[in-house]
Amino acid sequence: MSQTSFQTPTNKIVLSISQLNQQSRNLLEGALSRIWVEGEISNFVRPSSGHMYLTLKDDQSQIRAAMFRGQNQGLSFTPKNGQLVQVRGKVSLYAPRGDYQLIIDHMEEAGEGALRREFEQLKQRLSEQGLFDPAHKKDLPDIPKHIGVITSPTGAAVRDILSVLKRRFPAAKVTLIPVAVQGDKAKTEIVHALDRADNFNQGQELPIELIILGRGGGSLEDLWAFNEEIVAQAIYRCKIPIVSAVGHEIDFTIADFVADLRAPTPSAAAELVSPDQQELQQRIQDFEQFFVSTIQTQLVQQQQKLTWLQKRLKHPGQRLRDHQQRLDELDSRLHNAIQNALQLKKTQLRASHTNLLRVTPTHRITQLKNQQNNLKHRLLLALQNSNQHAQQHISQLAQRMHAISPLATLARGYAIVSDPDKNIIRTSEQLQVGQLIETQLHQGHVVSEVKRIKKK
Predict the structure, then answer these.
(1) How much is the average pLDDT of 37-50?
(2) CB neighbours of residue 77 within 10 Å
(3) H/E stretch holding 383
C-alpha cells in the first residue's frame, strides 16, 4: 500500500494507515508527554532483551505499558502481577498494531507497599549504625517509683495504661507527656517529649525512672510517626529506659527495635513495668516471716552460747590449780628439753673427735701407704697384662710372616730356578740350550743342563 496521500476527484485528503497512526502518535505524545498513573500490574513479562511489558488496570479500564531496559535498571524492587504501582511516563502509539500504550520512565510502589519498603530500608540502615545493639539496652527498674507516659492524652491507649497502673501499683507516680501520635507533627512532638523527660530528671528528687512510649493500633501509615529516623535517634540517646508499646501484637515499628523493651500493647506495657501490689504484699509478708524466724533462731543460738559460756566459767581457786598444773607440765618439758640438748651436744662431740682422728699425720701416713701398695699391685698387673698382649702380638706377626715366606712356598712343592750367577730365571727367554741352571727345592739344590727350550 502506498505511504503517500492523494486527492480524490472530490478534492478530499485521504491518509494512509501509517500516516494516521503517526499523526495520532504525535498528538498523544504532545498532549500527554509527562503524566503519573496509578494502577495494578497484570500480564507482566520481561524477555531476554531486558525490557518490561505489562498492563496497568483499575476496576474499570486497562492500558498496555512498556518500560525499556535503560529506565528499569534503576528500580529498587521487582514488579510482579497484582502489585499496585505509580508510574510516570508519556502516552504513545505503537504504529504497527495501532495500539496506544504508556511508555514508562519511572516506577515506584504505591500505598502501603512503598511504606513497607521504606520501613525495611530504614531498619537495615539503623541496624548497621548500631541502634538495635543489645549491648545498648538499659535495664528496667524492678519497682519504679515514677513512670513517664508519652502518648495521646485522648486515645484509648492512655486510659488502658493508667487503668492497669492504678490496679497493679497505685503507689507509683505517673507523669503524662501528651503528644500527637499521628500526622505530620507527631514525630516532632515525640522527639521533644523524650528530650523533655531527660531534662525533667535533672535535679529532681523523684526522677522519671522509665518511660512508656505508645499508642493504639492502626494502619502502617497511622503508625508511621514511630518509624521516623528522628524518633529512633531520640529513643537511642534518651538516658531513661523506654518501653515501646505501639499498636497491637502483630504491629512492629522502628521504635520497637530501638527501645529497651517492646510490649505487644499499651496495656501489656503497663503490666510489664509495674509490680502487682498483691504480689508485693505477699513478698513483704514472706520477708516479715523470714526476719522473725531468723531473729528467733539468732536468739536461740545466743542463749545456747550464753549457757555454754556459763559452764566454762570456773572458780578462781580451780583456775589457780589449773595454772599450777600447767606450770608443772612446762617444767617437766623444759627439763626434758635440756637433757635432749645435752645428749645432742655429746653426739656431736664424738663425731668431731672421730673426724679429728681421721685427719692426724699418723692416720694420713697409713692411708698413703695403703694407696702405694694398691698402686704397686695395680702396676704389676698392668705390666703382666701388657707383656702377655705383646707376646700374643709377636706370635701373630710370626705366623703372618711365615705364611708369606718363600720357604713356605717351596714347602708347598714350588722351586726357585737361577743361573750360575744366582739370577732368578722367570721366563724361558732367559735360557739357552746347554746352559747350566740351579734349582732350589724345599730341601736341597739340583744342578741341571738345559737340553731343550719350549716357548709355551
Answers:
(1) 91
(2) 13
(3) helix 361-403
